[in-house]
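It would be a great kindness if you could assist me with a short task in structural biology. The matter concerns a single protein, recorded as an amino acid sequence and a row of backbone structure tokens. Kindly check, if you would, that the fold set down in the tokens agrees with what the sequence suggests. Thank you for your consideration; the sequence and its tokens are set out here:
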Amino acid sequence: MKKSYLAVSRQGRRTVAKIASVLLLAAFVTGSGLGQVPDAGAERLRTLNNELLRVHGEAQRTTTAGLLALRDEAAAIIEQRAAALSQLIETNPAQALSFAFSPELVADLTAKFPDSATLLETHGTWQGPVEQWIFDGADLNSFRSVTRMRIGSRVLDVHEPDAPVRKNGDLLQATGVLVGNQLAVSSSATQTTAATPSTTGAQNVAVLLVTFPGVTPTLTPQAVNDIFFGSSGRSLNGFWREVSYGQASAIGSVLGYYTLNGSYTCLGLTQMLDDAIAAASAQGVSFLNYTGVFVIFPDLSPSCGWSGMSSIGSTTVWSPAGSFNASTSYLVSRFMSTQDQAVSLVAHEAGHGLGLHHASSRGFGAEALGPVGVLGTVNEYGSTFSTMGSGLGQYDAPHKAELLNWLTPGNYQTIQTSGTYSLQPLEISPAGLQALKVQRGAGNNAWLWIEYRQPLGNYDSTLPSQVYSGALIHYEDSQTGIHTQLLDFTPGDSNWTNVALAAGQTWQDPYTGVSLNVQSATASALTISVNYGAVPCTHANPSVTLTPSNPTIYLGGTASYTASITNNDSSGCSAGTLSLTSSQPSGWSASLSSTAISLNPGQAGSVTLNVTVPEGATPGVYPVTVTASSGTDAGTGSVNCTAAAPPPPSVTVSVPSSTYTSRQTVAVTVVVLNGGAPAPGITVAFTLSRANGSTVTGSGTTDSNGKAVWSYKIQQKDPTGTYSATAKASVGSQTPSGNIVFFSVH
């Protein structure tokens, strides 16, 4: 990575710190992670949108003096709305996109309320290198995952529904809506430009011990050295050596204590890192050969609310001797009070530095696994069997194989046909066959990772004992990313400490036809058979998405949406016909291009929905939905429609040239708009004023484009000098006047 959040200018860092402080409050003080945003947040934004649309409607009908009087009222609403939209972008970017105003409406609001323009959203496309950070809550129940994109000296916080896996330093091109520095992404493209950091060999770690004036440290340098580099008992070095089968280790130095006098905030820690590196460098320490940097510091006041913060992979760090690439982590010392607690936290944050996300669980109620493509319920730290979750166990097999490269293809097999396999425990070194990656049926990108744990070594001996009785299974599909996601094969008791598919048990996937049978589980091996049978027919709720997410339609106008429908039945089912219905506010009219659609399992199709807003509707943001159903299976897609007060009728006058001579013809063109749309069949009265003050009049009728043209031929006797032309139109009971255009006659 060329530059990063840790390598921006000091002015840029202050900006980032301010952004990060807002994120801290959202993620930890209120207890919200990356789950569903409370409905109150969206409804608050809907209310503010509606209040602003009311003022906008008044501005459409008022005079210039009246518009000036409305600006203070609009400014107060726009300021509150910016804060609400920014918060919604952080917690639910997909929902935020459905409440953002269209570019056309934003432009109109900017013109009417220019003093508040900087608080309105911006639509556009931005490009820059990305960096990912994880903030781990002290209770391992709350967290914050932050992606940042640097554009020059500016840093944007990127919020994207279903974000793909990226590496630090990858070049991101993101299209969406920006409020302040919060970017909600509607579409993106990634160019992989970052080098993959090494996960094998000796990882050279610098541990910076920091304290503040008047604060007595609770950890001694020797205790910290034992936590990171100890050769007996549990340590980061011991953990990596054991779980990597000797392929990785931790070496390095404990530096400090350094008493820092700066003023730091919980997420504005770049300055703390700079100050600690400067203090160590002043004592002759060179950082250029380090591949990881940890900063351990006392908690700040008020409490940060998190125990550890880490980059995912390497970032660019600056020292007086020059820049170097290293993973970077910050640890709050009060969460390292015991050796095991400290090693668990350090190994967790160090795992982020190696490129790992969390070891989660993925539940499906009374089932071990739901239909292909269904997310289920994800608990971010739900695995008690990995230190990347809430335990002190080894990193899971998918992490070891696909991200750490500690399991080679000889240590795991990809399974797509029936067979019986013997797996040795994950802890045994040298490693033999220790994991299976089993495709979940055919024709999908869904996989079951099977591994076997035993109470061996210093770390997996701490696990809940039921896991030793059978297969530990994780799920991987397009929604997994760089997490691991544990499944529960004893789902009836809702207990995530006894999740293994035990010896003598068989699991039959009701959705794909694959089955697993654990034949035996001994101290030395797990024997498991995989069978691919006929795919059963299992019906599932269809999925529906609507675009665009929130068009602006003037009262009396029609919004057009595309509804995309996917049949999620299993491949063993025959084609099905889905009935389509829509819902919209009372009094609105709507029509679907088709009220039914026939789709094969896994197939997607689309229809068009046209929704007409009544002329008498109240300006506001309204919900619009389409539901696809077959029997008891149904899916609904929801978006919004912004109904705005139309502008008053307008008349725009133009002439093709600014200079004419005698006997030339002046073509005076008028465009009449009504409600922002061309107004055909409108009578227009033209007036041309000569240089001597005399006038000539004419008339015309607008065509289908709202345009009317009246021509005047300049006579030889006409005076030279400055002429003008204007026009009036008769639009219902209104007679709007056009602008005055000037030209000269020589």
